[in-house]
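In the previous chapter we treated chains in isolation. Here, by contrast, the input contains two separate entities that must be folded as one system, with a combined length of 580 residues.
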Amino acid sequence: MEQEQPEHETTRVRLEIAYDGTNFLGWGIQPNLRTVQGTIEAAMGVLFTKYGGAPRLTVAGRTDAGVHATGQVAHVDLTPDQLGALNVRRGRSGADSLAYRLNGIAGLSSDVVMLGSSVAAPGFDARFSATWRRYNYRVEDASIARNPLVRNHTLSYPAVLDIDAMNDAAGSLLGLHDFATYCRPREHATTIRTLEHFRWTRDAAGVLNAEVRADAFCHGMVRSMVGLSLFVGEGKLSPTDAVLLLDARERTSEFKVAPARGLTLVEIGYPPDDELAARAALTRQRRDQS
Amino acid sequence: MEQEQPEHETTRVRLEIAYDGTNFLGWGIQPNLRTVQGTIEAAMGVLFTKYGGAPRLTVAGRTDAGVHATGQVAHVDLTPDQLGALNVRRGRSGADSLAYRLNGIAGLSSDVVMLGSSVAAPGFDARFSATWRRYNYRVEDASIARNPLVRNHTLSYPAVLDIDAMNDAAGSLLGLHDFATYCRPREHATTIRTLEHFRWTRDAAGVLNAEVRADAFCHGMVRSMVGLSLFVGEGKLSPTDAVLLLDARERTSEFKVAPARGLTLVEIGYPPDDELAARAALTRQRRDQS
């Protein structure tokens, strides 16, 4: 069983991150393309230029091009030299200073913000310790005035949407299912997931908000389920169709995947500190089996 | 007394407009600079290229560079030819189609949106019939996580703000006063205004929102009053200082004018239709006297 143990002498630092995904080609680093991981690692490269350069980030929820985050979590393992290079100021430890120092690097521009950093609890792994992910999807439908101030993170939909029908469809997807209908296929990747929450509400401004929570999501799953919701809301599909399409367990052209623009990763759930290591081991074991 | 009566044969059309002011040098048209008025008039020029070109817009609330609007109001007087050039579709009159047609012009980009258009009620003047203007100012203080998704219309302030002290100061400014302390001086322009509402609240996300309403605002007034609020909220000035500074009736360096980024024109108030003409005449008369 693969064990991504940090080097003996390193300290694991947990980072909380927010970004406007509009001008990023997603989280994952790619040569010559602007990505969130690439941007943050380049900033760490500046910070640690004399101390071995940029360490690698491990992230809880990899996001696609154009998808945003207000509650992303990542970790990074720092050597004693790197930790020492972070000035201790205002009584902060080096780990606590990492976010502050990164926000001060010119390469880190206004569309990505480090919200905080701290020494990770023992056994913590940003990706493998996570027990759930929560996303939000925002839609302005034709029943309300368009607001150009929020266009970077809100889909503008040219029809009036029936929220009750959308919630009927959303409710039918809850629980443990094979979500192959809603997953972009990936070799050796399971499409069985537990959908813990999926509900549409209208906020005070009339904007439709989907809150979606699962243990983990397969690739494209939230945007596919939102795409289905929009077709149901417009009356192009019925809530019953949602069940039939799920049961078919194959990709379909009956609805369109919703654009990245409206999607934000809001929160990553972790167990209590004393269960972090056990949870990470369990997740790794399941991955090995799948 | 000046009377801006429309030409006998024109039809006055009322427009509702929203824009993200980030990439505009304000409302008012300026040669070779990107302004909201310039952008919309250029789009009308395209629409009416065979019918006399772009007519001039009259706006309710001129906004400075970087200031946003979700409830701006303007009017334009169209000739029968121009009105006829707007295709009548889906049972709409030409006036009702203007907003729809303008949104379809390539020159009108995603940061300015026509929310609607209609034949104006008799006596309506977007500027002179207005009885009040309402603005909103948004501030993220150091007590909450920064959200890069709303950075285009939210000031990020590096201290924790005391909302009770800010409301004490705001309350002391209410009513009819000479607001010279809070006005950028303009020749022959009165600085006497009635401040009808000025209150800070925190929304569900913890963002501080100022709602400010007055019959009219002098130049820079909202941003000056917000700047005072921020200094009071941070403890650099007391609510009592707000009263002393108002009574001094002169510009001061005791606080800084707040940046344009956080400010949005939200709503323009008009009287009932049968009072529009009388109100416009009254406003023009007062301007002539001042």
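Chain B has a mean pLDDT of 91. Chain B touches chain A at residues 16, 18-20, 68, 70, 110-113, 115-116, 145-153, 264 (CB under 8 Å). Compare these points with the single-chain example from earlier in the chapter.
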